[in-house]
Amino acid sequence: MTANWRKFNIVRYIRRFNSVMRLSGITPESFVDGPGLRYVIFTQGCPHQCPHCQNPETWDKDGGKEYSVRQVNRLLKQQKKTKQGVTFSGGEPFLQAVELAEVAQAAHQIGWDVVTYTGFTYEELIEDANEGVKALLYATDLLIDGKYIHALRDIGLKFRGSSNQRLIDAVQTRKKGRVVLWNDAGQAVIN
């Protein structure tokens, strides 16, 4: 597997402040959508439509409400600095990858980490030639990949609903050039 996006120049592909995205909603405080206290952005639109999904209201790409990247970045900056980071959930965040990459950059600028949920696998994402997908992957610190599969449901798992979903340490994955899992204790596990 190649990681030719490893040295990806994110700034080159970001359209500043005039981008618009569709969101299902925003939860200003969550302890269940990634490590620490998080600001969660729920995107609108999902091609996966997993049976028993916990957010089926996010499936319709025309639902939700439009927000500009500038609006969302402003909302981030108004938050307490005690939060650990921002989480992109859905819907499918990678359908709005360019816009979320911009938001991720703003989150990094205020010292936050970025968690991104996706129904795609990491391998599917790195094979995607879309520059927005590469930009969001590059801006992500922890990637939670894979569709929710109800037959594999496990309520004991941290931050995910089914055992096929992986917690991928995206930073270490970029450095090593191969998938590095993140364990439930928050440590990288090289497989």
Count every beta strand, where a strand is a DSSP E run of 2 or more residues.
Answer: 9
What is the count of distinct domains?
1
Which structural category fits the helices and strands?
Answer: alpha/beta
Largest beta-sheet characterization: 7 strands, mixed
Can you tell me the CATH architecture?
Answer: Alpha-Beta Barrel
Look at the structure and give the mean pLDDT: 87
CATH class, please? Alpha Beta
Low-confidence stretches: 1-9, 11-17
Question: Any descriptors?
Answer:
191 residues; TIM Barrel; two-stranded antiparallel sheet; globular
Write up what this structure looks like.
The two termini are 14 Å apart. A hairpin with a 7-residue loop joins β1 and β2. It contains five helices and nine strands, in the order βββαβαβααββαββ. By secondary structure, it is of the alpha/beta class. It has helices spanning 69-77, 97-109, 122-127, 131-139, 170-176; strands spanning 20-30, 38-43, 65-68, 85-89, 113-117, 142-145, 166-169, 180-182, 188-190. It is globular, with a radius of gyration of 15 Å. α1 runs parallel beside α2 (97-109) and α2 (97-109) packs parallel to α4. It has a single domain (20-190), classed as Aldolase class I (TIM Barrel, Alpha-Beta Barrel), CATH 3.20.20. The strands form two sheets. It has a seven-stranded mixed β-sheet.
